[in-house]
């Protein structure tokens, strides 16, 4: 869907285990150590958003009135035409069941999560970029990645952005959801009613869910109104005796404006091959949409194309990385010269000191390469122990000074140069 087949992006390699059973205790399922905020059920087979509890509320708002209508219709089977009432009852039950199924499929399916990288891409992989010269990490001269780069889709040049959280250049039409903390292919929006991101893999079921909800609201509204009109007597008298039908009419009248308007809006988006995110950002107001292939083909792409395969296998066995490997993988991102073994690193939150408190961002971004060697030496010409590594501190304390015994300026300069360059 949405031009994904025209993209050259592939899933980053993962540390997948070939065996179906872990060999040591460090091996876990990918969903168990996934850094997103998703909730997993059935061993990672069902993937929900962090606000999956809203699924219960949506189920109640749909199933409650619909089942009430079906029970009310069933109680009238003996009073009106049996075939007519039976048909109304069966259709109502089918619409309710379909609506709840589409709701569950939308909420529990992987929307198109893009696999994360363990480390930033190599700088030489972006050397052919002709886009933004705004560097991602200007404080680290050995790691300069452009904020955006150009890719070609259907003959058009598209700018893709670098994601600081997932450490990758997002595929075209992908965006990072701040609620789920994932990059999602063909990101449409995060729906609070289903508690899940809407992306390339669940957009079809989302459209079916919204459309079925609209039809169900109109269905319950129509036949609840007919129930009132079929009763003999004045309309106000009938309404006072059939309060349930009055409540259903009022409820569906209000709800249909919401789900009906949403259905019309998404039909427009399907016809023009846009996403909600792109439409709200006026992305194609001043330039041509490279994904628009005409209304018929756009609608066929949504409803009759094959579902895009998942880029992430959340049930695969992976080896949980040690803290040291995680430290090494992002040392360049935060400036390797200022990261010491006494610090801990969190991919999402940054650096932590010995006391467990986060290091201020200002100190993380400082460049220590320009500090003069004279500042690192005391007045006697020796190196200040504050700037020594742990191994060098041991030698310093035992009297085996790393500084040249002659104590001359030349010797001190040569030694200090060796000490600080070896740390890099």
Largest sheet descriptor: 3 strands, antiparallel
- Quaternary structure: single chain
Alpha-carbon distance between the termini? 46 Å
Mean of residue pLDDT values:
76
Strand order across the largest sheet = 4-5-6
How much β-strand is present in the residues?
Answer: 5-15%
* Contiguous helical run count: 11
Radius of gyration: 31 Å
- List the uncertain runs: 2-8, 13-19, 125-133, 322-352, 401-424
Helix/strand/pairing category: alpha+beta
- Total strands: the figure is 13
Structure, explained:
- The protein is of the alpha+beta class.
- The protein has 11 helices and 13 strands.
- The chain has helices at residues 54-74, 82-108, 203-230, 235-241, 243-272, 276-280, 295-303, 323-329, 361-364, 390-397, 409-422; strands at 27-29, 39-41, 46-48, 148-153, 156-163, 168-169, 175-177, 182-184, 189-191, 196-198, 317-319, 344-346, 350-352.
- The strands form 6 sheets. The chain has a 3-stranded antiparallel sheet, with no helix packed on it.
- β4 (148-153) and β5 form a beta hairpin.
- α1 runs antiparallel to α2.
- The radius of gyration is 31 Å and the shape is elongated.
- The protein starts with 26 loop residues before the first strand and ends with a helix.
């Amino acid at each position: 869907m949405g031009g994904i087949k025209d993209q050259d992006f592939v899933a980053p390699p993962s540390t997948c285990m070939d065996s179906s059973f872990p060999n040591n205790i460090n091996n876990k399922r990918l969903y168990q150590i996934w850094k997103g905020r998703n909730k997993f059920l059935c061993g990672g087979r069902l993937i929900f958003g962090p606000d999956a509890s809203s699924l219960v509320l949506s189920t109640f708002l749909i199933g409650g009135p619909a089942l009430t209508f079906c029970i009310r219709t069933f109680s009238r089977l003996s009073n009106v035409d049996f075939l007519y009432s039976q048909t109304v009852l069966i259709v109502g039950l089918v619409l309710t069941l379909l609506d709840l199924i589409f709701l569950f499929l939308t909420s529990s399916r992987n929307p198109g999560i893009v696999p994360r990288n363990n480390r930033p891409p190599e700088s030489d992989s972006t050397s052919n970029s002709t886009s933004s010269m705004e560097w991602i990490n200007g404080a680290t001269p050995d790691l300069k990645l452009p904020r955006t780069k150009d890719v070609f889709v259907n003959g058009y040049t598209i700018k893709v952005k670098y994601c600081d959280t997932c450490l990758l250049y997002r595929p075209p039409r992908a965006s990072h959801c701040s609620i789920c903390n994932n990059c999602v292919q063909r990101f449409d929006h995060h729906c609070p009613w289903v508690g899940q991101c809407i992306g390339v893999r669940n957009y079809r079921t989302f459209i079916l869910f919204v459309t079925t909800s609209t039809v169900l609201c109109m269905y319950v509204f129509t036949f609840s109104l007919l129930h009132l009109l079929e009763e003999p007597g004045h309309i106000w008298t009938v309404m006072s005796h059939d309060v349930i039908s009055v409540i259903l009419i009022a409820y569906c009248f209000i709800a249909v404006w919401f789900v009906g308007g949403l259905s019309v809006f998404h039909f427009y988006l399907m016809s023009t091959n846009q996403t909600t995110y792109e439409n709200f950002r006026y992305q194609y107001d001043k330039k041509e949409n490279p994904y628009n292939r005409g209304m018929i083909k756009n609608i066929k792409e949504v409803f009759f194309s094959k579902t895009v395969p998942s880029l992430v296998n959340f049930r695969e066995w992976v080896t949980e990385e040690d803290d040291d490997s995680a430290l090494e993988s992002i040392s360049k991102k935060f400036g390797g010269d200022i990261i010491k073994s006494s610090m801990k690193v969190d991919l999402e939150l940054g650096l932590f000191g010995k006391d467990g408190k986060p290091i201020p961002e200002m100190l993380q971004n400082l460049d220590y390469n320009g500090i003069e060697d004279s500042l690192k030496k005391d007045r006697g010409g020796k190196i200040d122990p504050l700037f020594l590594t742990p191994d060098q501190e041991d030698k310093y304390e035992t009297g085996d000074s790393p500084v040249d015994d002659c104590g001359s300026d030349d010797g001190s300069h040569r030694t200090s140069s060796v000490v600080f360059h070896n740390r890099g």
